[in-house]
Design goal:
single chain; alpha+beta; 6-stranded antiparallel β-sheet; elongated; binds zinc ion
């Protein structure tokens, strides 16, 4: 069925049609004022007010890869081609016929697209947004001109903040049996070992200690006994962290870290959670990963993976090591430096732990 759809119906499918009542003179300049494709997979456009847009998608053929294009009124002055990166092969700006402008995005062959879910959203009279691909593809922003005007930025930010607040509310924590469980939280590094150093000198040890302490507080409020392997900036080797957890007979062990990429690449962001063995560790990792992703929109899901880290390999209880973002990544670092985001991550980790405990015990 899917094959049929892909082969026949989608070979040439116009699926958006935006028509406003304003009719523009044929020889006016292009309605397209600015565009950007962002690393979160969104294409954003700024046009003249009340512009008419038509958007199309065409499956790949022998000549072209999958293509998405938008036609605008008004004639483009200088047709041009811009090299893509990540899932995008190239972007072409052209005039398909007199008095028109066309923006074509051609994807690389191996890119998985799901145009059935695509929706072009009009943000206001002259701004548009559509999600084209998943942020799991690493992609450097490409664009021309300024899609968002400064004045509007403030309002946008406010919207973003209130949206974040509601994300926060979503994280209602589940209940578990009081005084039944004990958990060891291990803030990575410490003391002379600051761990990763990120953009602007942000230090892993500081970030993970703050997150860990908040997790401790939230879990304690739910009647879970929590011990931290360190409460301040002390030098603590790996074996004592493990023996501490093993000696206290904790039900779970969670080591909290933040990442750095080789060469401090700012385009590398994302979250990942490791376990060493067993379905319990894997389940705990999955729960935590799911929730930390939800409070980190746009940051790539690097997945739940098996890892041979000392602290999760040698602890006897289900154990995970969670990497809450890249201190060297532009997107993650900007968030991780904020207390508010650290709190959200702590909520997310706590929610994962409580879900696990309420399910498996
Ligand atoms: Zn670390």
């Amino acid at each position: 069925m899917i094959r049929f759809l892909e082969n026949k119906l989608f070979r040439y499918l116009a699926f958006f049609y935006f028509l406003n009542s304003v009719i523009l003179p044929v020889h006016s300049s292009s309605d397209l004022a600015a565009w950007v494709i962002k690393n979160n997979g969104f294409l954003e456009l700024r046009t003249k007010s009340n512009s008419n847009l038509k958007a199309y998608f065409q499956k790949s053929n022998q000549i072209y890869g999958d293509r998405f294009w938008v036609d605008f009124s008004g004639e483009l002055k200088n047709p041009r081609t811009i090299k893509g990166n990540g899932p995008i092969k190239e972007i072409r700006l052209g005039k398909p016929n007199k008095g028109k402008t066309r923006l074509v995005i051609e994807f690389k062959e191996e890119t998985y697209l799901n145009p059935l879910t695509w929706r072009m959203v009009g943000l206001d009279q002259n701004r548009w947004r559509i999600k084209l691909f998943n942020p799991k593809y690493s992609f450097k922003n490409i664009g021309e001109g300024l899609v968002e005007k400064r004045r509007r930025n403030i309002k946008e930010n406010q919207n973003l903040i209130s949206k974040k607040k509601s994300d926060y509310q979503y994280l209602k924590l589940p209940e578990v049996k009081q005084n039944k469980f004990s958990v060891v939280i291990d803030p990575g590094h410490g003391g002379p070992d600051p761990g990763a150093i990120g953009i602007g000198g942000i230090r892993e040890t500081d970030v993970v200690l703050e997150v860990s302490k908040t997790v401790q507080k939230l879990l304690s409020d739910k009647g879970v006994k929590v011990r931290l392997t360190r409460k301040n900036e002390v030098d603590l080797d790996l074996p004592p962290r493990v023996s501490f957890a093993n000696n206290t007979n904790a039900d779970l062990f969670i080591s909290i870290h933040a990442n750095a990429s080789r060469g401090k690449r700012r385009d590398i962001n994302g979250l990942e959670t490791f376990y060493y063995r067993g379905w319990r560790g894997r389940l705990l990792a999955k729960r935590i990963q799911k929730h930390i992703l939800r409070v980190s929109p746009g940051s790539p899901d690097r997945g739940v993976k098996q890892g041979r880290f000392y602290v999760i390999k040698n602890t006897r209880m289900p154990a995970v090591l969670v990497e809450i973002g890249f201190l060297t990544g532009r997107l993650d670092a900007r968030r991780l430096e904020k207390t508010e985001h650290r709190k959200r991550l702590a909520y997310a980790i706590t929610k994962g732990i409580l879900e696990y405990l309420s399910k498996v015990g």
